[in-house]
């Protein structure tokens, strides 16, 4: 009903302005059209006031809607502002919460007492916010770049006997994608259940031929939030940025790597692509799988909540592992709040690597205050990004952080795409969420939080290597940038709410 109302508003507003400026109808018709336009605009502004935003954001949108007729309303819809409180995914959020509470339960472990009080408190915070418990009977193996990641993925796919479930933002029908599709077709023909859920925008290069071949082999292929009709119901702006694989309840994958040739940059002659993925085994797989099962149910209506799909296998744990799924179907800003809490809990060092750094005010303040307290705060971002707005939007925050002593490095070896944060070398998070407004508020994301796990040391070692492949940004060098660069940064920053 709400989406229909938005379409009607758009049509009436456009028609009213057309009558006023582009027709020769009588003044009475033009006055009536003007009054109609103003009534609808005032109703939109009233709803905006009721949303309880900060005053400056409310005023900004009021100015946009008043001074940019139609275009302002289109941008308001497209940016997801009318649905920013999660009304669009209310049912999905409710179902997901119930599913986690019913099916994702890990028995207590004595190894919980091995965690520090800080880590126990943070784990409890995660459980409270997103109903995802910590597992002490799981293992994680860090996979660096495409060479390790895709060889491991193919190896585990070949072992599949019951099912292979995949959920990806980007899945291309290129050389790498085709090699994985061929494996999936082979396993489907063997009787293995294959389900692939792909984002309709991120995977627009997944060819019809590839999807047809998968379906003819017996696999199920489904797109997440189709583009068709996506504008008027606003789903076009909410993208599934997750990268998930679960195989037979025995192995799973999550991290920064999509499926496409560019992500295998260290495997061929393409640009080097620096990324990090994780191979997951043990009981935490039930939490990772629950995310896939709920997304699949939301798009297909196929309920898979049976022992066959929820069974996992305990392993000798190598620390605490906890999964966090975030997005418009979970508590608003859950990932951002957890990042903030993690940063403020640090006592020694905060190391961050992200391709897109467009943080909200709370996270910027937390990083600045941590540096002022004498904590080592390091940030690695790519020197050259894959987009103008993301590159210069990221750089627009350098000045503020440098003033507070934050160390900033630009990765030079290739494109850095990993999303990690390491706190005091004993807790870390890795997954799909960038440190930007889109990942914090609009995208469906999934991260692992690692507590005193051996994998944290591997992330630390990898981070040190990345520092060696980066150049440090100094205040002097940054302040000497020309007016052209300053203009680009200021322009790009205007789009930070939707980057």
UniProtKB/TrEMBL annotation:
InterPro entries linked: Cardiolipin_synth_Firmi, Cardiolipin_synthase, PLD-like_dom, PLipase_D/transphosphatidylase
Listed name of the protein: Cardiolipin synthase
EC number: 2.7.8.-
Enzyme class: transferase
Transmembrane intervals: 7-25, 31-48, 60-78
Keyword tRNA-binding: no
Active site: 241, 243, 248, 417, 419, 424
HAMAP family the UniProt entry points to: Cardiolipin_synth_Cls
Compartment(s): Cell membrane
Primary location class: membrane
PROSITE patterns for the chain: PLD
Family: Belongs to the phospholipase D family. Cardiolipin synthase subfamily.
One of the record's GO cellular component terms: plasma membrane
Any one Gene Ontology molecular-function term assigned to this protein's record: cardiolipin synthase activity
Keyword Secreted in record: no
Domain PLD phosphodiesterase: 236-263, 412-439
SMART domains recorded: PLDc
Function: Catalyzes the reversible phosphatidyl group transfer from one phosphatidylglycerol molecule to another to form cardiolipin (CL) (diphosphatidylglycerol) and glycerol.
Membrane disposition: Multi-pass membrane protein
Species of provenance: Guptibacillus hwajinpoensis
Gene3D superfamilies according to UniProt: Endonuclease Chain A
UniProt keyword terms in alphabetical order: Cell membrane, Lipid biosynthesis, Lipid metabolism, Membrane, Phospholipid biosynthesis, Phospholipid metabolism, Repeat, Transferase, Transmembrane, Transmembrane helix
Reaction(s) the record says it catalyses: 2 a 1,2-diacyl-sn-glycero-3-phospho-(1'-sn-glycerol) = a cardiolipin + glycerol
NCBIfam families in UniProt: bac_cardiolipin (TIGR04265)
């Amino acid at each position: 009903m709400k989406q229909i109302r938005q379409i009607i508003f758009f049509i009436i507003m456009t028609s009213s302005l057309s009558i006023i400026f582009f027709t020769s109808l009588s003044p009475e018709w033009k006055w009536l059209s003007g009054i109609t336009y103003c009534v609808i605009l005032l109703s939109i502004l009233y709803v905006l006031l009721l949303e309880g935003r900060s005053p400056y954001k409310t005023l900004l949108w009021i100015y946009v809607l008043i001074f940019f007729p139609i275009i302002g309303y289109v941008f308001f819809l497209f940016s997801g502002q009318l649905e920013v409180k999660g009304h669009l995914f209310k049912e999905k959020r409710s179902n997901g919460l119930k599913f986690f509470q019913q099916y994702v339960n890990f028995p207590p472990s004595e190894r919980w007492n091995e965690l520090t009080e800080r880590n126990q408190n943070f784990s409890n915070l995660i459980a409270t916010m997103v109903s995802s418990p910590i597992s002490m009977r799981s293992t994680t193996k860090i996979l660096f770049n495409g060479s390790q990641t895709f060889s491991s993925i193919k190896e585990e796919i070949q072992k599949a006997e019951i099912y292979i479930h995949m959920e990806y933002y980007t899945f291309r029908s290129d050389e790498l994608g085709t090699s994985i599709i061929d494996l999936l077709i082979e396993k489907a023909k063997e009787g293995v259940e294959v389900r692939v859920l792909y984002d309709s925008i991120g995977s627009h290069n997944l060819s019809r031929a590839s999807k047809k071949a998968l379906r003819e082999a017996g696999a199920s292929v489904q797109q997440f939030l189709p583009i068709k009709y996506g504008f008027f119901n606003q789903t076009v702006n909410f993208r599934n940025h997750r990268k998930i694989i679960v195989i037979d309840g025995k192995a799973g994958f999550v991290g920064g790597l999509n499926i496409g040739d560019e992500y295998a940059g260290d495997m061929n002659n393409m640009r080097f692509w620096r990324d990090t993925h994780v191979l997951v085994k043990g009981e935490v797989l039930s939490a990772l799988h629950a995310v896939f099962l709920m997304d699949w149910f939301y798009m297909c209506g196929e309920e898979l909540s049976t022992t066959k799909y929820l069974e996992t296998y305990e392993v000798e744990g190598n620390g605490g592992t906890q999964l966090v799924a975030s997005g418009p179907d979970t508590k608003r800003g859950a990932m951002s709040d957890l990042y903030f809490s993690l940063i403020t809990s640090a006592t020694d060092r905060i190391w961050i690597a992200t391709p897109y750094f467009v943080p909200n005010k709370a996270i910027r303040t937390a990083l600045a205050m941590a540096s002022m307290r004498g904590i080592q705060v390091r940030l690695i971002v790519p020197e050259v990004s894959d987009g103008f707005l993301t590159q210069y939007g990221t750089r627009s925050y350098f000045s503020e952080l440098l003033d507070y002593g934050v160390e900033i490095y630009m990765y030079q070896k290739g494109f850095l795409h990993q999303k990690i944060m390491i706190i005091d070398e004993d807790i870390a998070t890795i997954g799909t969420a960038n440190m930007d407004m889109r990942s914090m508020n609009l995208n469906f994301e999934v991260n692992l939080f690692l507590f005193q796990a051996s994998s944290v040391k591997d992330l630390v070692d990898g981070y040190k290597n990345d520092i060696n492949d980066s150049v440090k940004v100094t205040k002097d060098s940054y302040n000497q940038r020309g007016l052209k660069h300053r203009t680009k940064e200021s322009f790009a920053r205007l789009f930070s709410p939707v980057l």
